[in-house]
Write a structure and sequence with these properties.
heterodimer, A: 312 residues, 12 helices, B: mainly alpha, MetI-like fold, 9 helices
């Protein structure tokens, strides 16, 4: 309990620092946002009025506190290019990215654990070599390249889906999931390879421990030893790794959304960077950063909960 | 009689070494010579499929894809090398001082490093590029800075472990000056850990540059990089699939070569 409090305090401090940095980073950008909104040939008076309206004339500390308070209340400011509240922009896009992340994470966990156990308990040398080589190759394929290949194979050649024609969830739930399946798999594949590799190594290490020998001498079958004893210990690092993956998959969506033209926050982020629409960039970055920090925090807690050695 | 201490053949090192040697040779060759011009456009040879004349076909401007891939891989390669050099040099400096001296500065610096490494490089470099603007030197700088913590952490752990060993104590008693202890006595002993970290960092840098160029905020046309070529080629997926496949294949082989190499080095030193 004390540990949880300590970790929570540390999380809050880090989140605070991240928010401060995110705020300051976008203060030092050269150029005036009013020129961005009004165009370069707007009158000085008009620009001044807008500066006043956007609150750009107040001191930095005051603006930071204001920004932080409204950010916590869910008011992320106004987009320069859409002239709409950032929160309403995000409300459209966030569920799409969240769904993609969730699907990809589910694929990673559901495929990598059985595969890892299978390849960790294999005794054939040839099969082992094959597994190692497959792992290495899959890890070398960047998700966006796999995404492009699957667009070509399943979209252009087999015509199973139309690349770029995203189906909104509200229109057709099954169609939407179907469209998100390939992007989710593209994101999941390298993660699956890494997890399988990790679980295999972890199982191999545990199998050399003395308690395995004890269990064997008590007459337990290999299967029983593996599932009941070895796996419990071998899963500890893997669960932590999977938890951290949830954060990395979310950032991976930034690129994969471009490949499959999925209207999520990744696409919004990239187009906003292009448009220099800083309130949007700032909001997305802070939200992603918070997501990463929180996931890492939870991974840490899970790790402590699973591994009694860390509790003392 | 067989020598019982003879090491098992290290297949990773062999395949990784050959592959990365071949790729490096191809890339270095691309700096000086490519089969065709990488910029000259040829309207009559637009989107030609692979043939003996054009090994990987031609692109939408009639440029030879293989020549462009050679040069594009060169751009990616150079950027990755510079990123790793910046990250590693600064990482060694910070890591060695932190590990050797310890104390409160070490604690704070490592805490900062942990926070930075918790973020995926692509997100932070997007932020830096969106603020500083997109140019080749900004990409190198942004990624270079982001790669410092991973090296600093690795180096620090090594230094903290070695600093109290007897040979270091002896060197101190003999009056060897600290910089010499740090970089002539300890540094060579960190190499078995540092070299795999370098190759992994190199791969991450290739991937990061490719991702950024793919998003259109990295290398700008007409200059070719693997990421920017993939971005362009995606528009010709139906009419010229070889353009995408050739470029992507080159990237996969490059990454695979160096990850096999680092795997091999790790196996041969442990």
């Amino acid at each position: 309990m004390k540990l949880v409090l300590k970790k929570t305090a540390s999380l809050i401090i880090t989140l605070f620092i991240v928010s401060l940095l995110a705020f300051l980073a976008f203060q030092i950008i050269p150029g005036d946002p009013t020129t961005k909104i009004l165009g370069t040939n707007a009158s000085a008076q008009k620009a001044e009025a807008l500066r006043e309206q956007l609150g750009l004339n107040r001191p930095v500390t005051e603006r930071y506190l204001d920004w932080l308070v409204s950010f916590l209340q869910g008011d992320f400011g106004t987009s320069y290019s859409y002239l709409r509240p950032v929160s309403s922009l995000l409300a459209d896009k966030l569920p799409v990215t969240a769904l993609l992340t969730l699907l990809s994470f589910a694929l990673t966990a559901l495929l990598s654990i059985p595969l890892g156990i299978a390849s960790g308990s294999m005794r054939s040398q040839a099969a082992d070599h094959l597994a190692v080589i497959t792992d290495q190759i899959i890890m070398a394929i960047p998700p966006f390249f796999f995404g492009i290949i699957s667009c070509y194979v399943f979209g252009v050649v087999l015509k199973w889906f139309l690349p770029g024609n995203y189906i909104p969830l509200s229109e057709n739930a099954a169609g939407c999931m179907g469209y998100l399946l390939l992007p989710a798999l593209s994101l999941a594949l390298p993660r699956i390879a890494m997890t399988v590799r990790m679980l295999r190594g972890s199982i191999r290490d545990e199998l050399t421990e003395n308690y395995v020998l004890t269990a064997k001498s008590r007459g337990l079958s290999r299967r029983e030893i593996l599932l009941r004893h070895v796996l419990r210990n071998a899963m500890i690092p893997v669960v932590t790794f999977l938890a951290v993956s949830a954060a990395e998959i979310m950032t991976g969506t930034i690129i994969i959304e471009q490949v499959f033209t999925i209207p999520g926050i990744g696409r919004l982020l990239v187009s906003s960077i292009g448009n220099r629409d800083y309130p949007v960039v700032q909001a997305i970055v802070v939200l992603l950063a918070a997501w990463i920090m929180i996931v890492n925090f939870l991974a840490d807690l899970v790790n402590h909960w699973m591994d009694p050695r860390l509790r003392s | 009689m067989k020598n019982p201490t003879k090491k098992k053949k290290n297949r990773y090192l062999l395949t990784g070494g050959i592959l990365s040697g071949f790729m490096t040779a191809l890339i270095v060759c691309g700096f000086f010579w490519t089969p065709y011009s990488t910029t000259a456009m040829n309207a009559r040879e637009k989107l030609q499929p692979p043939s003996w004349r054009h090994l990987l076909g031609t692109d939408n401007f009639g440029r030879d894809v293989f020549s462009r891939v050679m040069q594009g891989a060169g751009t990616s390669f150079l950027i990755a090398v510079m990123v790793v050099v910046i990250g590693c040099a600064a990482g060694i400096l910070i890591g060695s001082l932190c590990g050797y001296y310890g104390g409160i500065a070490d604690l704070i610096l490592m805490r900062i490093c942990d926070t930075i490494t918790a973020f995926p490089a692509i997100l932070l470099s997007l932020v830096i590029i969106s603020i500083a603007g997109s140019s080749e030197s900004n990409i190198v700088l942004a990624l270079g800075i982001l790669f410092i913590p991973s090296f600093a952490r690795v180096v620090r752990t090594q230094y903290a472990g070695i600093r109290d060993l007897n040979y270091i104590k002896a060197a101190r008693l003999e009056g060897v000056r600290t910089p010499r202890i740090l970089y002539a006595h300890i540094l060579p002993n960190t190499l078995p850990i540092l070299i795999p970290a370098l190759t992994i960092g190199f791969n991450n840098a290739i991937l990061a540059e490719a991702s950024m160029s793919f998003l259109g905020i990295g290398i700008q046309p007409p200059k070719a990089s693997l990421g920017s070529m993939l971005k362009d080629s995606q528009n010709y997926l139906a009419s010229a699939p070889w353009y995408v496949l050739g470029t992507g294949f080159m990237m996969v082989v490059l990454i695979l070569a160096f990850s096999l190499l680092s795997e091999g080095i790790q196996q041969s030193t442990t």
